Amino acid sequence: MDKAGNEMSLAARRQEMARPTPARERLSVLFDEGSFTELDAFVDGGVVTGYGYIEGVLAYAFSQDVLVKSGAVGRAHAAKVKKVYELAETNGAPVIGIFDSNGADMAQGGDALAAYGQMLRCANRLSGVVPQISVIAGVCGATAALIAAAADFVVMSKDAQFFLTPPFVAQADGAVEGAGSAENAAKAGVASFLCDDAIQASIKAREIVRMLPQNNLSPVPVFEFEDVPQEIDALSADALVRSVADAGSVTEAGEGFGDCAYTALGTLSGSTVGFISTARAKGCLSSDDMVKIARFVRTCDAFGIPVVTFVDSEGFAGSAQDELCGEIRQASKLAHAYAEATCPKISVVTGQACGGVFVALAGTNANADLTLAWDGAVISPMPPDGAVEFMWHDRLKGCEDLSKARQALVDEYKATEASAVKAASAGCVDSVIEPQETRAALVQAVLMLENKRSSRLPKKHSNNLM
Predict the structure, then answer these.
(1) What is the C-alpha to C-alpha distance for residues 243 and 227, in angstroms, rounded to an integer?
(2) Beta pairing partners, 73
(3) In the structure, what pLDDT confidence band is assigned to residue 441 with cuts at 50, 70 and 90?
(4) What is the CA 29 to chain-centroid distance, rounded?
(5) Residue 315 falls within a domain, yes or no?
């Protein structure tokens, strides 16, 4: 080909790159305006890859292009994605994967399987090293779902599909209605965030990435913040966290998963913090709640993000049938997640914290660096009702109204033996505070722990998987 031919080929390619497509539009809203640089643009692989800046911070991304061979995954596709991961590893920067593909390139057979294997290995190799965000913008199924779900957070468009088994097959086998839908992915705890469409999902991914460190060795990002005195609102987990965090900084993760557990990213005095509350709804923590909290703690710990836990729970779900279904196992994993985490951990007992819940989520001798308690909190080795039956049953003898007498003893037990002051005198709580002092106390605690150093015993890995 002569010089004129080469110039025409280059001009045609640049014109093609400038053509708006869903894959490129999603990247354009993800990165700062004009900052995205495409890599391997001359390789037709059904995926657009490159790097850019999110509020001035380097990040890498790939966006599957369903308009090119239906986004089919093959050798070239995987090679482009692999390069993104390798560059992210070398430069210690986040990876955002935007998934929209109808599946493997069937014409490539085994090579397509090898391509998926390369991508899966890259994603898992960088887990806990750099932040990874998956955006489910269209169809993400089978092995691609394994890759996407390996990310730290999954953002999903409400009209997208996310599945291992194709929905039409699952429904034919009698699976729940809506198999593969965004709603079901949220209920299952796979999708952390739901958005109206793929563009909004990409914008949400941008919001999340900006709150995370660039990698596991980078400091937590610090932002300007509005320090407006706020009344503490303990009516709900959401309201409590928002009345303690910097104004307008809170982003809830996993809203559709777990009835009692609330998890969110936010800032406190400008620094990113992971907030957890067990009082999203009254009741015991279910398996879903425990999985949700444990996963969030491990994500925060991977990148050194301080964890603030508000504890108010009746305990772990514990009927005989529940235990057969794995409640004990999930409770053990939850306790392990806190114990293994070396990031700053601050717990605030705002209501009831008895037995295993206190030890797992707030115990300074096990899983918290600093434990605060509101005046009026209830802290006890077992729930007050049970404690009264066990310790003070004799005092109920001869009572005409057993129910009223028992309640009076429960109230007495809470005010004396199970009081926050009693727990503090036993060294179980570091300080007893009024609710209105919570924000100031947390700001000071995070500042005090910002240079925390902690090391684990030499080992290959722990053996208590999430």
Answers:
(1) 11
(2) 104
(3) very high
(4) 23
(5) yes
State the first-to-last Cα distance of the chain, in angstroms, to the nearest integer: 57
Q: Nearest-CA neighbor of 296 among 242, 343, 245?
A: 343
Three-state SS for 185? helix
**Hunting for tokens 């730290």 — which residue is that?**
152
The residues, ordered by sequence, that sit 6+ positions from 100 with a Cβ below 8 Å of its Cβ are 22, 23, 63, 64, 65, 66, 71, 137, 138, 139, 140, 160, 198
Query: Does 171 lie in the same domain as 270?
Result: no
For 190-213, how does the pLDDT look when each residue is reduced to its tens digit (9 = 90+)?
A: 999 999 999 999 999 999 999 999
Distance CA 175, CA 164 (A): 13
Non-local (6+) Cβ contacts of 403 within 8 A are none
Question: Is 403 contained in some domain?
Answer: no
Domain membership of residue 107 as a residue range: 3-211
Q: What is the pLDDT of residues 268-290, one digit of tens each?
A: 999 999 999 999 988 899 999 99
Place of tokens 């918290």: 368
pLDDT one-digit tens code per residue, 135-174: 999 999 999 999 999 999 999 999 999 999 887 665 555 5
> Would you say residue 75 has pLDDT above 80?
yes
Q: What does the alpha-carbon distance between residue 276 and residue 252 come to, in Å, rounded to a whole number? A: 10
CA distance 41 to 331: 48
Would you say 269 and 226 are in contact if contact means Cβ atoms under 8 Å apart? Answer: no
